């Protein structure tokens, strides 16, 4: 890409001996740092960027906004939530960036963060039971625990269009979008991809660009966000219950949300009652529609019924028949919500406008890229000044391909995962002692609200470290058997879901050449937490010494 990476620079190298190194200063890294400080550990975060916030530091593409509703997309730390006023129900990237600046002010995360420090290699030293870590800037760290909080979207995916490098306009991957923005006013903009990112970029740039071209391979089943302001008085009233909601309530639903899980299946209701339930979910917005009924993602007939409701709504919002058939076809092209739906505000109205062109790349694929635009198979040149690449990530495992991690007997993580991902509890890996990670493969990562997963995972990590310290132990390793059983559990839980039958990043198949495998734990947050917590008393599934 010729779009520059948000140039965050490199820090001067240091040499440190720590109890633990956390990698990444997003929600997980910050929460873990806070908790481990409280427990008296000597700890630092290595962060490639210049500020905390993780994806909310990096992702400043137009329209970037979170799809979890106030107040759950937040840290449960009282010093933070008592002193912060949210503005929007679904905050945008700027508001989230300000939130993290506030978090940094309150917790002084920066004091223990090595900014501009990208971890490259980590080697487990079997003679000392410590990790030796080396960073791109020359920083070297020795520590007992290596705690990866790199998130699931640390490796970008680019399309392999012929001639992409010859494009002379401005081109940028969504997650590299410059913090200062790119002026799209009056420009011919194009967006490739219709995932959560592509939808947000398209919806936003359509309002300013002279022309917008969206390359659509798979239509997104977008749900209304139903954005609103957070009333400051309401937030003050919410303070009475917020702690309970952030530390208890949000772990009671499958997706880590505050609204209850559905109790009924689609056909338990009469057509009238079903209509009323779906209308209510639509009116309230957010992801409610995805779980308005228990079997939306397990029964084909139930799924088709929800699609019928969705498609009627969407078709009514568009006047252009060709666009309507592409974005909301009568016949579903895949199970509704089998891929991650986007929350939208006026996406369909924007896409319906005459200055927006939708290219169906399934029937008319990209042929090649020229200096001034993209040529499709039908010979059309789509002229472009600014090209936004929203083709996603080598999600979950991709971030670990950047890192050279060597565990016991010289085995690397790349080799360990070559024929499929194996983990235990979605936080540890056999042969890689004292390595724990959050928000990665084999936990409810993609299927739940982020902070609702990473905080309890961080608590589990803290409990492991505390128990190891109390018992005077120095090495904890998942067993190969525990790992095999966990993979089988992941497979079993996922096989009941229609998501299992869809290609995309949930199954790793968005990247050509990747092994198809379920990457997420599909049992929901409550069962996941019960399972991981049950291992703590006796360190079930681990070898400890
Ligand atoms: O990435 P994606 P994303 N030619 O992989 C298309 C989180 N997130 O960055 O579906 C043409 O979902 C691909 O098409 P197809 C969220 O969890 C959250 O959008 O494979 N098209 C797809 O449409 C999300 O799920 C928020 O047929 C190509 C798109 O590119 C995750 O991050 C906001 C192509 C990629 O979609 C990832 O989202 C943003 C090609 N060669 C992201 N290759 C919020 O909370 C790929 N595509 C709001």
Layout of secondary structure:
Layout: E1 15-23, H1 27-38, E2 43-46, H2 55-58, H3 78-81, H4 93-107, E3 113-114, E4 119-125, E5 130-135, E6 140-148, E7 170-173, E8 188-192, H5 196-205, E9 211-216, E10 223-224, H6 232-247, H7 271-284, H8 300-315, H9 321-327, E11 343-344, H10 347-351, E12 356-360, E13 366-370, E14 373-376, E15 381-383, E16 386-389, H11 398-401, E17 404-406, H12 413-416, E18 435-437, H13 450-470, E19 476-478, H14 480-495, H15 525-534, E20 542-544
Helix pairs in contact: 1-13, 13-15
Residues 65-67, 153, 159, 174, 192-198, 215, 217-218, 340, 361, 390-393, 446, 504-505, 510 line the site of 3-acetylpyridine adenine dinucleotide.
Please provide a written account of the structure.
By secondary structure, the chain is of the alpha/beta class. 29% of the residues lie in helices and 16% in strands. The chain is built from 15 helices and 20 strands. It has helices at 27-38, 55-58, 78-81, 93-107, 196-205, 232-247, 271-284, 300-315, 321-327, 347-351, 398-401, 413-416, 450-470, 480-495, 525-534; strands at 15-23, 43-46, 113-114, 119-125, 130-135, 140-148, 170-173, 188-192, 211-216, 223-224, 343-344, 356-360, 366-370, 373-376, 381-383, 386-389, 404-406, 435-437, 476-478, 542-544. Strands 1, 2, 3, 4, 5, 6, 17 and 18 form an 8-stranded mixed β-sheet that branches. Strands 7-16-8-9-12 form a 5-stranded parallel β-sheet, with helices on one face. A hairpin with a 4-residue loop joins strand 5 (130-135) and strand 6 (140-148). Helix 13 runs parallel beside helix 15 (525-534). The radius of gyration is 23 Å and the shape is globular. Residues 1-7 have low confidence and may be disordered. It binds 3-acetylpyridine adenine dinucleotide. The site of 3-acetylpyridine adenine dinucleotide has 26 residues, from helix 5. Residues 65-67, 153, 159, 174, 192-198, 215, 217-218, 340, 361, 390-393, 446, 504-505, 510 line the site of 3-acetylpyridine adenine dinucleotide.
């Amino acid at each position: 890409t010729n779009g520059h990476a948000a140039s965050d620079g490199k820090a001067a190298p240091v040499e440190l001996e720590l109890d633990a190194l956390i990698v990444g200063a997003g929600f997980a890294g910050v929460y873990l740092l806070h908790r481990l400080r409280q427990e008296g550990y000597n700890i630092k975060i290595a962060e490639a960027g210049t500020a905390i916030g993780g994806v909310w530091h990096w992702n400043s593409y137009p329209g970037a906004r979170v799809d979890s509703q106030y107040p759950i997309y937040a840290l449960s730390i009282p010093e933070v939530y008592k002193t912060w006023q949210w503005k929007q129900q679904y905050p945008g990237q700027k508001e989230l960036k300000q939130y993290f600046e506030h978090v940094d002010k309150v917790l002084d995360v920066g004091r223990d963060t090595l900014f501009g420090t990208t971890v490259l290699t980590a080697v487990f030293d079997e003679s000392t039971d410590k990790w030796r870590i080396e960073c791109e800037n020359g920083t070297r760290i020795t520590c007992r625990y290596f705690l990866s909080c790199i998130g699931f979207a640390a490796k970008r995916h680019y399309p392999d269009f012929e001639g992409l490098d010859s494009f002379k306009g401005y081109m940028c991957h969504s997650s590299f979008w410059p913090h200062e923005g790119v002026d799209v006013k009056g420009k011919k903009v194009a967006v490739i991809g219709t995932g959560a990112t592509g939808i947000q970029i398209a919806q936003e740039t359509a309002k300013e660009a002279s022309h917008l071209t969206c390359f659509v391979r798979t239509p997104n089943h977008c749900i209304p966000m139903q954005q609103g302001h957070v009333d400051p008085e309401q937030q003050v009233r919410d303070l009475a219950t917020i702690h309970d909601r952030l530390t208890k309530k949000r772990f009671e639903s499958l997706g880590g949300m505050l609204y209850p899980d559905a109790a009924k299946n689609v056909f338990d209701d009469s057509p009238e009652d079903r209509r009323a339930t779906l209308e209510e979910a639509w009116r309230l917005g957010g992801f409610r529609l995805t779980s308005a009924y228990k079997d939306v993602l397990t029964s084909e007939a139930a799924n088709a019924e929800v699609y019928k409701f969705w498609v009627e709504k969407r078709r009514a919002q568009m006047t252009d028949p060709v666009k309507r058939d592409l974005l909301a076809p009568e016949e579903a092209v895949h199970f509704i919500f089998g891929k991650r739906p986007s929350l939208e505000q006026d996406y369909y109205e924007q896409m319906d406008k005459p200055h927006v062109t939708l290219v169906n790349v399934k029937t008319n694929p990209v042929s090649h890229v020229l200096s001034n635009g993209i040529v499709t198979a039908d010979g059309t040149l789509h002229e472009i000044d600014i090209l936004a690449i929203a083709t996603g990530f080598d999600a979950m495992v991709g971030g670990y391909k950047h890192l050279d991690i060597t565990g016991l007997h010289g085995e690397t993580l790349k080799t360990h995962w070559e024929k499929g991902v194996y983990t235990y509890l979605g936080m540890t890996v056999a042969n890689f002692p004292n390595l724990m990670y959050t928000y990665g493969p084999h936990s409810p990562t993609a299927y739940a609200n982020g902070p609702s997963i990473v905080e309890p995972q961080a608590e589990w990590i803290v409990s492991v470290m505390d128990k190891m310290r109390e018992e005077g132990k120095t090495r904890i390793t998942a067993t190969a058997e525990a790992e095999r059983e966990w993979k089988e559990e992941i497979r079993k839980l996922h096989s009941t879901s229609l998501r299992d039958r869809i290609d995309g990043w949930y199954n790793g198949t968005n990247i050509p050449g990747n092994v198809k495998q379920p990457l997420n734990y599909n049992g929901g947050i409550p069962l996941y937490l019960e399972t991981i917590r049950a291992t703590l008393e006796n360190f079930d599934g681990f070898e400890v010494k």
